[in-house]
Amino acid sequence: MHRSVDEITGSKRLRRMRRDDWSRRLVRENDLTVSDLIWPIFLIEGQDAVEPIDAMPGVERLTVDRAIAAAQRARELGIPAIATFPNIPIEKRDRTGSHSLDADNLINHATRAIKAAVPDIGIITDAALDPFTDHGHDGVLEGGIIVNDESVEKIAKAAVGQAMAGADIIAPSDMMDGRVGAIRDALDDAGFQDVAIMSYATKFASAYYGPYREAIGTAGVLKGDKKTYYIDPANTDEAMRETEADLLEGADMVMVKPGLPYLDICRRVKDTFQVPTFAYQVSGEYAMIEAAAANGWLDGERVMMESLLAFKRAGCDGILTYFAPRAAEILQEKG
Ligand code: PBG
């Protein structure tokens, strides 16, 4: 017996709601808005200068005055927050990352200047030591080992310095055990109860960070890899344990990093913990889309917007993305 298409589908004609633009909009489950975007920017010392980053076409390192202009642009576009990452001159880096504790280092100098010029934008700073160490690791290196507790002590102190400079959110990207609790205690002791923590709760030992290491100048100096402190890309239960630990230690928001290859983690974090969940669409993800677009192999703009929407669908509340200003412009045009 042969059944007609009509008998098989019955009333389940899912294409009905896809027919018109108005009906597609009406049944749309997820939307990307400018309020979902966090813009990571790279800093360099000096005045009125920008430096291109080979593996990240369209992204530049900015001197602090240029970073102020970027923050103003973000503010005008309605982007809620920026995240700063410094490229520290090599002569200021050492084994323990001591310059991270300098009240007037590049991160803190930028935070003060941006806060003064653009007070109503959120500033997120990273307390990991990698921009400041001469070996490129996120913590203190001793006898070939990244020593956990000594690193945590330094990271918590660096976080307090960042809060003193005016950072709104401390985002530790280092993956040392216990660093969220230590940062929370240190912030509270110093009177910064209102400074929040966005933990890089599930940061994987990923090859997608390559272009970032060029951007902050750790590519050439990094000794070995980060597998002894970042999560194995094969693991998802471990990612849940990390997230739970960070929440218990006081994280206000959690992050999954990288982004697109780890959407399963985003969904699982959101479903398990129901807390503010963010993804970092990292440098390598940006580079892949840009490279394909530059070759004419992909429609870069559409892939950018689709990739950002995918994070929303996976349960994320927001996305750190180098595309933030471009996506915001497109969203603004759409009105
Ligand atoms: C390290 C750090 C990394 C990124 C931000 N902070 C990874 C790394 O160098 O191992 C990656 C960001 C990106 O790739 O866009 N603390």
Describe the structure.
The structure is a single chain. The protein is an alpha/beta fold. 40% of the residues lie in helices and 16% in strands. The protein has one domain (34-334): TIM Barrel. It has helices at residues 5-9, 21-27, 64-77, 106-117, 148-165, 179-189, 210-215, 237-248, 263-273, 283-294, 300-313, 324-334, and strands spanning 37-43, 50-52, 60-62, 81-86, 122-125, 140-142, 145-147, 169-170, 196-203, 253-257, 277-281, 318-321. The strands form 2 sheets. Strands 1-4-5-8-9-10-11-12 form an 8-stranded parallel beta barrel, surrounded by 9 helices. Strands 6-7 form a two-stranded antiparallel ribbon. Helix 3 packs across helix 4 and helix 5 crosses helix 6 (179-189). The protein is globular. The site of ligand PBG has 12 residues, from helix 7.
